Sequence to fold (156 residues):
Amino acid sequence: MDPGGPTTTFFKWFGDNIMMRLQQSDLEELAVLDSLHKPNLQGIWPGYFYDRDMALKSKAATDFEKIHGQRGVNTATVGNYRKWTDQRVKQLRNFSGPVFLVQGRQDPIGESTIYEIKELLPQTQISMIEKCGHLPWLEKEDRQVIFYELLEKALQ
Fold:
């Protein structure tokens, strides 16, 4: 579900793809968060979405303090990503089970990660959700429906 790539290549453009979607008000919020030494997820939140209105709606309903209050989550999920790349790729080459990949077409991670995954795991079945960013379960209702239908299909 909107995965990063098996290697760290996507880190080269992921942040840029988020930043290019932000408006002046977002950049001003980022500056305030930075001056307060607070995490920036709240400020960059709209950059994860295709639909800005949905980004702002979900942003208002999200407790960013709680998200960043989970000690070690980022370290566990991203912190060792670079360190274990070679081992991860080697192990993925040996995986033979089914793989269902669901991704928003406008995910800031970019589509090249799909091809990187498909090269390592040729059995990967890819489903794209049009006009959708990195968080399909939070995008517009019609994209949410598509996302949940694809998720249910993958889990069967």
